[in-house]
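@channel sequence for tomorrow's demo:
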Amino acid sequence: MNSRANGGISAGDGKNVQNNPPRWQGVQSSHAGVSVQMGLPSRSYEETYTCICCPLGCQLTVMLQQGPAGLDVTGVVGYTCRRGKDYARQEATHPVRMVTAAVPVDGRLCPVSAKTAQPIAKNRMLAALEEIRALRVQPPVREGDTLLENVAGTGVALVATKTVQ
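structure tokens (generated this afternoon):
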């Protein structure tokens, strides 16, 4: 069980020890996978992430406020650089990822590696991979060629990252 989910009290060792004192007074902790819906009454919670912007791997805690207008970040703690703070805000409100794949080239044993030109919404990744899996390209393929214009309706192109003759 997450130590934050039970107010910082460790349940694993049988002792009533406060491992992680609360960072904000009166904040209710959330569990992973909490869905955020529009039009609900105001509610505060926090999410924890590990920063991937540099080798430090800071533990970031994002304070979120869910109100009638949607999700709002009210604070971030645990970062050591500006990139970490920006990453935490992005990850909490609209997580995005680059998608990479290998696309078969007709008549060749070697597939062409490809990636999205920009990160796409994390919840669109499976749809994007389904479209990419169905894709076959004709040689020659040059690095930077657009293989698919609008991946999963995101408006982002899939581009080749190597040349296959």
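heads up for whoever presents: The helical segments are 82-93, 125-133.
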